[in-house]
Design goal:
DNA Binding (I), subunit A, 22% strand, alpha+beta, five-stranded antiparallel beta sheet, HNH, endonuclease activity, zinc ion binding, two-stranded parallel sheet, NA-targeting_endonuclease, SH3 type barrels, nucleic acid binding
Length: 283
């Protein structure tokens, strides 16, 4: 099993010169840092605020003046600002924009606590997977993007999943694959009851309501053999105590379908399932 354990490799970003880890040198190191900088600086030029333009990794304190490659000394700059700044000290470059200077200095020094918090929360999943006794490899978001880009695959969630970890094959056979797209939808409102204007309960506690073995959210197939609604419908059901259900298909909502015509396909579990698109043969 391949697990994208961390979004960013914080050790690599804080000290790109560190030795001893195979992928910390070369092309991948740049991927890890660049991905983090794009998020940290919100895909904007740090100096002029432009977006949707090519952005360069910029040394706040120039290397020529002793600046390092640590992520705390890096920001993003458009080509125009990057060229204009050159090897100037940032204080000199932004002497007429003290507010921008203050913002960049504060944002640059912000710790990697956001990345660290997200990284730490994923160890619980790693421990659960290891407990199965199956072999588990881990990687980072930067490694996943490197694998996907080097194999010239388009950006999709399911293709990212195929590119997690160092075991990713050099050639992936993904043509004509139809992925199952799973989305967490939840189980409805967590609110147990509705309050009045004073905050006191005005309705009784809600529970999972089942009618004739069905509950709202179940996936059903209804084969109606007679009447105005004659036809076959597949979709999510909204139950009614009368036994006359509504079925929401991809295109429309069919109202007033008797439970007698409904057959259970999948019980509601808080997720939705749809078939994804197919890649063209040349992808």
């Amino acid at each position: 099993m391949s697990l994208e354990l961390v979004r960013f490799d914080t050790q690599l970003m804080e000290n790109p010169e560190v030795k001893g880890v195979e992928y910390q040198q070369g092309t991948l190191a740049g991927y890890e840092v660049r991905e983090y900088l794009l998020e940290k600086w919100n895909h904007h030029c740090s100096y002029c605020g432009k977006t949707d333009v090519p952005l360069h990794v910029e040394h706040i304190r120039p290397r020529a003046h002793g600046g390092t490659n640590r992520v705390s000394n890096l920001c993003l700059a458009c080509e125009k600002c990057n060229t204009a700044k050159g090897t100037k000290d940032i204080a000199a470059f932004l002497k007429k924009k003290p507010d921008v200077l203050q913002r960049i200095q504060a944002q640059a020094k912000a710790p990697l606590k956001d990345a660290a918090a997200a990284n730490a929360s994923r160890w619980a999943l790693f421990d659960r997977l290891k407990a199965t006794g199956l072999p588990v490899e881990v990687g980072s978001g930067g490694l996943t993007k490197f694998n996907r880009t080097s194999r010239e695959l388009p950006k999709t969630h399911w293709l990212d999943a195929t590119c997690v970890g160092k075991s990713t094959p050099e050639k992936l056979l993904v043509q004509q694959v139809v992925p199952l797209l799973i989305t967490a939808t939840g189980h409805g409102n967590r609110q147990m009851c509705l309050p009045d204007t004073y905050g006191f309960p005005r309705t009784s506690a809600k529970g999972a309501k089942k009618v004739k073995g069905f509950q709202t959210g179940d996936m059903v197939k209804a084969i109606v053999t007679r009447g105005k609604k004659k036809g076959t419908y597949v979709g999510r059901v909204a139950v009614r105590r009368t036994g006359s259900f509504n079925i929401k298909t991809r295109r429309e909502t069919i109202q007033g379908v008797s439970y007698h015509y409904c057959h259970m396909l999948h019980q509601s579990d808080g997720y939705s399932y749809i078939q994804g698109g197919v890649l063209p043969p040349h992808a």
